[in-house]
User: Fold this.
Amino acid sequence: MNTDVLVVGAGPTGLALGIDLARRGVDALVVEKADQLFPGSRGKGIQPRTMEVFDDLGVLDAILEVGGTYPVGMVWQDGERVGEHRMFEPAEVTDDSPYNAPWMVPQWRTQEVLFARLVELGGRVSFGREVVGFEQDADGVTVRFATGPEIRARYLVAADGGRSVVRRTLGIGMTGETVDPHPMLVADVRITGLDRDNWHIFPPRGDSGYLAICPLAGTEDFQVVAQFPEGTSVDLSPDAIREVVAARSHLPAESVTEVRWASDFRPRAALADAFRSGRVLLAGDAAHVHSPAGGQGLNTSVQDAYNLGWKLAAVLRSEAPAELLDTYEEERRPVAAHMLGISTGVHRGEVRRGEATRQLNLGYRESSLTQETRTAVTGLRAGDRAPDGKLDGTRLFDAFRGPHWTLVAVGTEAPELPEAVRVVTGEEQPSYGKGLFLVRPDGYVGWAGEDPGTLTDYVRRFITR
Assistant:
C-alpha cells in the first residue's frame, strides 16, 4: 500500500478529512486535479455546528481571525435605500451553544486555513493529480491518474465535487431536482461606490433577475450574485459582469474595478443513491448537491468528513470491525437528505434562515451506533449533539477537543474505562441531567444511561485500548 486512505479533492471536505485522519496518526494523502486550491468565495457561510467542528479540529481561532459577521441586507430601488432585510433569525449565545450565528469566510480562505492545519499536522496534498480510473479488490483500491504513477490505498474517499469522477466510475446515480431553472452568476469583484456595512440587494427590474452584492468579510472583495432568465447563457467576462452591475443597480460599469473570479451554476438539489461501494466512500458534494441559498452545502460536507474520519481510523487501527464504516451512510445520508430539503426551502422562500440552518439540532438517534438505556427521557438523549457547558469547573468542549471519546458523568460514579476515554465528572450539569453520557469522537452522545455495566459492553465494541 502507498497510503491507508486516498482522499480525492482538496476542497473543504477533503481537507477536513485529511486533518482528522492526520491527527489520528492515519497515513492519508489528499490529491487534487487542479494546480492550486479553489480560488473563489462560493461557500462563504460557516454555520454554528461547523464552528464547533472547527473548534475540535484546531482551526477555529484562525477562522475567527479571517472572517466576520454577516451584514444587514439593504434593499435598493432607483438608487435609493428603501429598507433593511434581516437575513437570519437572531439567536442568543448560551452555555450549551457558544456559537449562535453563521460566520462569513470566503471559501478560498477557509481552504487556506484548513490546508495550513493539515500541513502543520504532517498531512499531504498532491496537486495536479487528476483521477481517471480505479479498481478495487478485497484488500484495497488501485487509483490511476492522467499523469504520474498509480496509488494503492486501503480506502478511497471521493470528495471531488458534484461532478465526481469517482462516483461516476462507481456507477452510483444521483436523484434530485432542479431547484430553480434560472441560471446564476457568482463572482468575486473589487467595486467602488458601495459601503461594506450592508449586503446590498437590488430587486428585479423588468425582465432581469435580482442582483446582490455582499462585502466579503476579511477581504477587500465583494461577492456578486445575479439571476438570469431561463435559457440564458451566462457570460463570465469582466465586461459582461460590469454590464450586469450597471444595468441592475445605480452603479456605473466602471465601478467594478476588478473581477477576481467568476462562475455560473443552475441551482439544483441531488442526493447520491449510495454513499459507499466496498472500499470507496463518497463525501461532500460528491454525495449531495445543494442550492447555495441556505448555506448548507459546505457545512454538511465538512460534517460528512467529521463523521467519517474517526470511523476510518478505528477500522484501520483494528479498534473496531470494518462494519463500522457501514454506519457512515446510515447516519449521514438521512442528514444530507434533510438538509437538502432545508436548503431548497430557503431558496424558494419557504424556510427562514435560523434554527434549521444552524445545524445544532441534527443527530443520530436512530443510528445502530446509538444506545439509549433510559426510559421516559425528556432532555438530552443518546444520538444527540453533546452540548457545551461547565461541569465542576471544566468546559466540556475543552474536554471533547481531540480524537478521543469522552465520558461525561453527572451525579453518577464513573466506571473504569480504557485509557482512550477521557472522563469528566461533576454533580450537576443542566444541559445533561443526571447520568452517564459517552460522547463519540465527533461530538455526539453514543451511549446514555445510569448502569455502568451496559456502558462497558458498548465500549468493548469500539475502544480496545
Summary: The CA atoms of residues 5 and 282 lie 13 Å apart. The chain has a mean pLDDT of 95. The radius of gyration is 23 Å.
